[in-house]
Specification:
Helix content: 55-70%
CATH topology of the largest domain: Rossmann fold
CATH architecture of the largest domain: 3-Layer(aba) Sandwich
Number of helices: 12
Order of helices and strands: EEEHHEHEHEHHHHHHHH
Structural class: mainly alpha
Radius of gyration: 24 Å
Strand content: 5-15%
Largest sheet: 3 strands, antiparallel
């Protein structure tokens, strides 16, 4: 990308409203930004995390190995990641869209990068942005700024301290869509798994007296799991709810179907092949 100076907008990308006679263009090689600033900063953090047996893994959209719709896959990564680093130099529409999606779903760490001299739009102007240049001094400063930002946020990322701030963007989205109510219900349920299990088992025991209550209780948990499953960030929680359903007494055919569902979810994750196979085996055991 080439950036040229503009009297009104500062540095901006060409082609744009900047005249061809503008000052000398600055050439930005984003592979260099990725290699010598972002990756080296992450590796430096990883060096400090080695003693705690922790490691940050990184990826970009073009580096995703699986086939299929790369836009969908990358947005899933954007939503799931504990840390995102977005270079908004040139105000690329794709980057701004992905950054907006990220802000709407996660409170976790969202770092902005941009080349020094870029004038950011008002929507993100107040967000903390790490500026860089590609001369040795600018590279070193940006790299160190990323390291400091990540290390400062690690206690929150590792859930060692509570969140200290609020994501205004995500809160606005949650209030506008009603997602905050779903989140509160899920959090309320999270601390009462044993109670729910006992109640449902008791409902099963009394099924002859009130089968409707028994079935309604099952349906409540199953619908909760399906709702969580639709949210990439809630998939682990969905698995936990489905696992809860498999522990309930009775419900023979329904438990079999849940084991098949657990197999389906886990089979989509290459790291859970053995877990997926275990669920499949348990489902087949309930076929008879």
């Amino acid at each position: 990308m080439e950036l040229v100076a503009d009297d009104r907008d500062g540095l901006c990308r060409r082609p744009s409203g900047c005249p061809d006679t503008a000052a000398k263009a600055i050439s930005i090689n984003f592979q260099d930004v990725y290699d010598v600033i972002i990756i080296e900063a992450i590796q430096k953090v990883n060096d400090s995390l080695a003693a705690r047996d922790l490691k940050i893994e990184w990826t970009r959209g073009e580096d995703l190995p699986q086939g299929g719709n790369i836009v969908s896959q990358f947005l899933q990564q954007v939503c799931r990641a504990e840390i995102t680093i977005s270079d908004v130099t040139g105000l690329n529409p794709n980057v701004l869209l992905e950054y907006g999606v990220r802000l709407s779903v996660r409170d976790s760490m969202n770092l902005l990068l941009c080349h020094s001299g870029i004038s950011l739009p008002i929507d993100i102007k107040d967000q903390r942005c790490i500026e860089y240049t590609l001369d040795p001094k600018g590279v070193a400063k940006a790299r160190n700024d990323i390291v400091r930002a990540i290390e400062y946020s690690l206690p929150v990322l590792l859930h060692e301290t509570p969140e200290s701030g609020e994501n205004l963007f995500r809160r606005t989205v949650e209030l506008a869509t009603g997602r905050h109510l779903e989140k509160r219900l899920t959090e309320a349920f999270e601390s009462s798994e044993e109670l729910v299990t006992n109640l449902l088992n008791e409902a099963q025991r009394l099924g002859g007296v009130n089968p409707k209550l028994r079935d309604q209780s099952w349906n409540f948990l199953e619908n909760l799991a399906k709702t969580l499953e639709d949210d990439p960030l809630g998939r682990e929680r969905a698995i936990q709810v489905y696992q809860l359903l498999t522990t309930l007494k009775g419900f023979h055919e329904k438990r079999r179907d849940v084991f098949y569902k657990l197999h389906e979810i886990c089979a989509a994750d290459p790291n859970r092949e053995q877990e997926a196979q275990n669920y499949l085996d348990q489902a087949k055991a309930l076929e008879n």
